[in-house]
Amino acid sequence: MPPSILVNRRGDILEITLNRPETYNAFDLDMMIELGDALATAATESSVKGVLITGAGRAFCAGGDLKWISQQAGDAGPTLHRLAPQFHIAVTEIRRMAKPVTAAVNGIAAGGGFSLALACDFRVMAESAVLIQGYTSNGLSMDGGGTFALPRLVGLARALEIAAFDQPIPASKALEWGLATKVTPDAEVRDEALVLLERLAKTSLHSFAWSKRLLLESFHNTLETQLELERQGISACAGHPDGQEGIRAFVEKRKPSF
Question: CATH number of the domain at 5-201, please?
Answer without folding.
Answer: 3.90.226.10
